[in-house]
Fold this sequence. Notes:
0% strand
Amino acid sequence: MSKGRPKTFDEVDALDRAMETFWLHGYEATSLSLLVGEMGISRQSLYDTYGNKRQLFLRAIDHYRATRLVEGLDLLERPGSPVENVKALIHFFEAIAGDERCRGCFVANTLVELGPHDAEVAAVLHGILSALEGAIAASLEEARRTGELAPGKDPQELASALLNAIIGIAVTGKLARNRYSLPRILAGTLRMLD
């Protein structure tokens, strides 16, 4: 049985470029022609390697989780102050939202675009956001144990509020004119940790 021709492209690099394309344009506005052009591969290579557009999109979401979001979550694992680590995570997302390309956050964008009417994508996003909220709550629980967070503050409730604020920051950053309000939004969000 013939193995076919060997791949002449880096699968991870092409997946990264697909993720960037979906992130910038959204799922619906990203055509296969745009994808193959941005990925630098043929349509057949896309199908052979990643499946159809939807399968590629789901892999792109997972790639975002495994690269960008893990980078943010790693901030919570740093030694030192758990509250400062949570603040660093919030700043991390603010930097994504403030990107000059006005892309926002890939997860937040997808949540707005597909979450309400695509159960499979909604379930994937729910898993990602639940993990993020759980990691924030764990850091805040540690902060409460060490006396850094006031005893009257509920770590889970605060984590939910912070996650909501992070998503709001990401969506707000999509409009260039709104980016000027990000510092005020960020300041209010950080005050929740006082």
